[in-house]
Amino acid sequence: MMDQLAPHLRRGGVSPKPQALSLMERAPQFVIYALHGPYSLYLMLRYRGITLPTVANPGLEGGGLTKESKADLFNLLGPVGRAHLAPFVTIRTGPSMLEEAARAMETAALSFPVVAKPDIGRRGFGVKTVRTEQELAEHLGKFPEGVRILIQRYAEGPGEVGLFYLRMPSEDRGRILSLTIKHFPEVIGDGTSTLRELILLDCRARALAEVYFKRNSKNLDRVIPFGESHRIVSVGNHVRGAAFEDGSAHITPALEQVFDTIVREVPGFFVGRFDVRYTNLEEMKRGEGFTIVEYNGAGGEPTHIWDPRTSIIETYAGLLTHWKHLYVVGAENRARGARPMAFREVVRRYLDELCLLKSYPDEE
């Protein structure tokens, strides 16, 4: 039975819930983060530390604030976390990358489709679901030489959620503060319209047409057969066109318990977000039947704030509350002996990450 929170599909168009594109979803980054500067200054003075977020997770380099390695994070997972993790391998781009990928995938028993993504990255840059060896070769060929790439088993889903977790160092148990249901828009063919036309039929999809056209550039002129569904985005990121829904009402004690166990197995991890695929929401709420595809430290924001029904005030409040959490947790960890990263090093890592992102292909 289809999950009741799955996207609502209608013939000849796309209508993920919720349908309307909010003002904050359309806003540029400098508007979204306009209050971070003055609020950060207040927090620095209040907690007497400029870079306290870098020790919000003292077990992660820089707290996971920037330039964090996905593979390194995966390798920190304990037995429970690894049992739920989508298997992966890593390779380096270069002349022998395809042979290296083939050997690594064979050793790990990975078969297509897989997700290929840079080890260091965010916002979906360089992430692509590839279904053949040729597609993998084409995608890897778009990266500069020497980039570390994760090749991970594709978790079919069909559902994906973002779970934001927090535990104060002085607390025995953590909690899930938000749960975001991610909808992947699809079009349903009418037998006469091209993919391009189907995308333009819907007001939300039309507002994101540039994103969707780039993602589906090879199929835009294809006529979608009557009744056939075509997913137009596969990366669970709102800037890549996924629609987010606040699903915090679905947080259960069982779900919190299993993620508290997973997190407590990771040394020095207190705050961050898990991106999880599931096939049945009720099963996942029981703490079963889900697959971890990624998790982030201090840089992983709660994503329920991107639900279009969330007001501008609530969105800003959610962003700033997350930043406050990092300072509060960081201050407590500093009191326990953790040493914050130097400001100069934080800036260097941030600029390094920006340079990496600019070198990645941007197809999703």
Short description:
The chain is an alpha+beta fold. Helices cover 35% and strands 17% of the residues.
How would you characterize this protein structure?
With 364 residues, the protein is of the alpha+beta class. It contains 14 helices and eleven strands. The chain has a five-stranded antiparallel β-sheet. Helix 3 packs parallel to helix 13.
Q: Structural class, from secondary structure content?
A: alpha+beta
Mean pLDDT: 90
Shape: globular
First CA to last CA: what distance?
Answer: 29 Å
Low-confidence stretches: 1-18
Main sheet makeup? 5 strands, antiparallel
Summary tags:
364 residues, Dna Ligase, domain 1, alpha+beta, 35% helix
Question: What order do the helices and strands come in, and which of them pair?
Answer:
Blueprint: H1 23-26, H2 29-32, H3 36-47, H4 70-76, H5 79-84, E1 88-92, H6 97-107, E2 114-118, E3 128-130, H7 133-140, E4 148-153, E5 159-166, E6 175-183, E7 186-188, H8 195-200, H9 203-207, H10 209-215, E8 229-231, E9 243-246, H11 253-264, E10 271-278, H12 281-285, E11 290-296, H13 312-335, H14 343-359
Antiparallel strand pairs: 1-4, 2-3, 2-4, 5-6, 5-10, 6-9, 7-8, 10-11
Helix pairs in contact: 3-13
